[in-house]
């Protein structure tokens, strides 16, 4: 009896609809690549590595430079250089730990 009732017959997928879906998916992928939304995590890891390296080098160079300049003016060579170098290293490691734990400034 159910076979004789009028209703909608299930239609097979039209090849045009399948082709349209494929083209839409390709267009969405191309647009995501073009706008930069399809990037994987490697870019973020690269930026994080560069930030850690900059913190480490910046802390050491900054501390040593300030210590050297103060040593020249005050005549306390090499004590301020060494002291501020170690202080710069400690600050750099503190910043690296802060970066790696996910907290920002």
TrEMBL record:
Q: Which family does it belong to?
A: Belongs to the bacterial AtpI family.
Transmembrane stretches, by residue range? Answer: 52-70, 76-97
Q: Does the record carry Lipid metabolism as a key word?
A: no
> In its keyword annotation, does this UniProt entry include Ion transport?
yes
Reading the lineage from the top rank, the first entry is Bacteria
Job description of the protein: A possible function for this protein is to guide the assembly of the membrane sector of the ATPase enzyme complex.
Annotated keywords: Hydrogen ion transport, Ion transport, Membrane, Transmembrane, Transmembrane helix, Transport
Under InterPro entries, the record lists: Atp1_alphaprobac, ATPase_put
* Protein name (Swiss-Prot/TrEMBL): ATP synthase protein I
Q: State the organism named in the record.
A: Sphingomonas donggukensis
């Amino acid at each position: 009896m159910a076979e004789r009732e009028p209703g909608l017959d299930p239609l097979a997928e039209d090849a045009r609809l399948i082709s349209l879906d494929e083209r839409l998916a390709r267009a969405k992928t191309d647009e995501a690549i073009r706008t930069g939304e399809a990037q994987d995590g490697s870019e973020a890891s690269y930026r994080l590595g560069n930030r850690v390296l900059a913190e480490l080098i910046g802390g050491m160079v900054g501390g040593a430079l300030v210590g050297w300049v103060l040593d020249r003016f005050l005549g306390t060579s090499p004590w301020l250089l060494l002291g501020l170098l170690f202080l710069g290293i400690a600050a750099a490691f503190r910043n690296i730990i802060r970066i790696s734990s996910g907290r920002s400034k």
